[in-house]
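Progress note, sequence design subtask.
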């Protein structure tokens, strides 16, 4: 599977927009329009490799400091 930076940015934006500041895989998939689990999982791991998201103790995902910076930069572009 290829990296899709547009999709990765959509993931970051969805996490940034959530009032809980943390979403599970299922919540993220719904927020993104019920995307394929494999595509979402692949991109979450890539974002984690890049230090933009982190897995929480409750099996959710949250933005890191760098992830917030990236999401803000994209929203201001």
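Output:
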């Amino acid at each position: 599977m290829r990296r899709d930076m547009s999709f990765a940015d959509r993931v970051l934006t969805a996490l940034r927009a959530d009032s809980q500041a943390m979403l599970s895989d299922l919540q993220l998939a719904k927020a993104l329009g019920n995307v394929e689990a494999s595509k979402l999982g692949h991109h979450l791991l890539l974002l984690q490799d890049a230090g933009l998201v982190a897995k929480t103790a409750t099996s959710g995902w949250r933005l890191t400091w760098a992830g917030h910076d990236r999401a803000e930069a994209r929203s201001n572009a």
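The two ends are 27 Å apart (CA to CA). Work on this subtask will continue into the next period as scheduled.
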